[in-house]
């Protein structure tokens, strides 16, 4: 549906974008991420025909943006970061004006405008002057003009900016529905939004694509090891021994180890008892005899099966170890109270790919 072939836009001081290369299939919703100044807006403006690339080629549904710009633009709906609104017009008159610009047939304009108003929740505001709308409703009108002519490719720059939580959920649902029959390129700074609606992530930094991957494959792409956090019911040392005996397990770390001060207190108490036994055997024997009933009446020792331990288990070769861990502990009779796969979040990956290491060293 969209092909961006080695596209560059060069400005002074080597700014702009350099050799951007990716393609999108019909029905894909692609999240387009990058820090401020990375080249996102420049790339989207070239895709939509507002800017001409210095080098490279952009093809929309078989139409070259350079050779057939009018046909290519008809396939695109674009919502820039600042919606292109005429504040003195009413919502309805503005959308009819856009329908004329988009060459929507006259007999279909009324229905197209009504459908866009209904989808964006603008009922009851058709006669309202755009200037008097809240920022959230202006954003809705901007999105309505983008989908009015039912484009094959939808390019959205911060579509949920300024919306309240309920409106954000509604717009996300709309984008998800549009993705069933359209191709959507979505630029946003709200990273959870990418996880919620996108089936592919494209990250740009300093004018170059640094990641193009499906969300579920991000960890593997970043060379992430496979880790699970566990809470297991059973004696700590025995649970550790069982896990470390597995060939697929590379490392096991305790997550609930006793603080150093507590361990020192335990060692100090042990040393005091030993010294007392050496200096006054009769007193030590008397204390031990008086402690016998207490020990006999206690429910279970400290290392009994009622104790639980929290651990972080890392695989030896990045493979999924959850099944092996489950069967090993089940065989030993130690129930798993909780198991959770640990992975890099999209925020972690974004920061890792877009942080300027040289600048960070200079700041340090």
Provide the fold topology.
Layout: E1 2-10, E2 16-24, E3 29-33, H1 40-47, E4 55-60, E5 63-64, H2 69-74, E6 76-79, H3 91-101, H4 106-119, H5 135-147, E7 153-157, H6 165-178, E8 183-187, H7 191-197, E9 200-205, E10 208-213, H8 218-221, E11 227-233, H9 236-244, E12 249-254, H10 260-279, H11 281-297, E13 308-315, H12 322-332, E14 336-342, H13 346-354, H14 357-363
Helix pairs in contact: 3-4, 4-5, 10-11
Features:
single chain; 364 residues; alpha/beta; Rossmann fold; Alpha-Beta Plaits; 6-stranded mixed beta sheet; 4-stranded antiparallel beta sheet; 14 helices; 41% helix; disordered C terminus; transport; ATP binding; ATP-binding
Q: Mind explaining what this structure looks like?
A:
Keywords: ATP-binding, Nucleotide-binding, Transport. Residues 283-308 are annotated as: Disordered. Residues 2-231 form the ABC transporter domain. It is built from 14 helices and 14 strands. With 364 residues, it is an alpha/beta fold. The chain has a six-stranded mixed β-sheet, sandwiched between helices. A four-stranded antiparallel β-sheet has the order 2-1-4-5. A four-stranded antiparallel β-sheet has the order 12-13-11-14, with helices on one face. A hairpin with a 2-residue loop joins strand 9 and strand 10. Helix 3 (91-101) packs across helix 4, helix 4 (106-119) crosses helix 5 and helix 10 crosses helix 11 (281-297). The protein is elongated, with a radius of gyration of 31 Å. The relative contact order is 0.12. Residues 258-277, 290-305 and 357-364 have low confidence and may be disordered.
